[in-house]
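User: My collaborator and I are trying to settle a disagreement about how two of our proteins should look. Neither of us wants to argue from intuition anymore, so we agreed to look at predicted structures for both before our next call. Could you fold the first one, then the second, and keep them clearly separated?

Assistant: That sounds like a sensible way to settle it. I'll keep them separate. The first protein:
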Amino acid sequence: MTKSLSNPLLSPNLWIDRYADYLYNYAITRVNNSDLAKDLVQETFFAGLKSAKNFEGKSTERTWLIAILKRKIIDHYRKINSNKGKAEVRMSFYEEGEKEGSWIEERAPQTWDNEADKLIESEELKSTIDSCIDNLPEKYAMVFRMKTIQGFETEDICKELDISASNLWVIIHRARTQLRKCMEENWFNN
């Protein structure tokens, strides 16, 4: 047994049986991606093993593991929202059919050359986006505008709306999912 596993307050050999399903269900509701949720749970178990010597027993094992998982989820969203992370994020506009596919964001097709067409297209696009944002649930629209359009810091939004950072990122994810659906119906399919 390694030193990091010698904490008598923990039973890492039972974590998978006791907590894997719970942690997975927790993660999947926050990242909406099965493979990513599994990876985050695995990373949580590894981080738990590495920091087992720091566990003081002030909470249950499950609560402690959830706290680790929350940090892993926040780190994931921070990464994909950083400039480097954004370049690695794949943009999927169509999930099925003959248009199925995705692009790495930095290699997405560029706009047209004609300036007049660009201006008209830009105004129509802005109008469609605004309409789609207006159709979001009120809290989603507020959080999305504050974070994405107005550029507020996560901490400021959380304080203003009395929500946690993980809740903020769940709201942002859900807002983006609904916006994508709205844009597909009102912009890409026209």
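The second protein, kept apart from the first:
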Amino acid sequence: MPTDTCSTCGRDLDLHDRHVRYTLPDPVVDSAEQEAASGTWLSHGTARDSVMMYVPAVGAFVRALLPIRLAEGHTLTYGVWLGVDPRELRSIIDVWWKPEYRDLRLRGRLANAIQPWGLLGSPVDTVVRDPDETPYCDHSDDPDLDHVLRSEWPHDVIPDTS
């Protein structure tokens, strides 16, 4: 059975409009005990399923979606982690599953390196576009991250995972 291929890059279309979800923030990956550290809090049973986490001596993190616009209307969406001020985590938790969530605005730092750009630690602001979805990275004071968010990219920017 032949697969559909992209007329722009020649890759299988199933590589387009993908969602890539990071399991852990990079600072947690780099820590000795990762999410198993004593005192760690996860919003759900596992880090992969969680939308928020706190890891002592590492930080507080919240999920966000980072959409990369590709040519011809395709989108590669990264499920990333944002490092947030641990003092703000309680207020985020308080609205996450309530109607007020639709007005949630977060300011944090990108806690995953995004290939091919890197961008780890870049400041980013999020908005809730749909109350049934994770907040979206909307803009950044970092010119490189803001350029990534605002530009359309060629399909060859998609990391080859084959």
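Some points you might bring to the call about the second protein. Residues 21-156 form one domain. The chain has one domain: 21-156.
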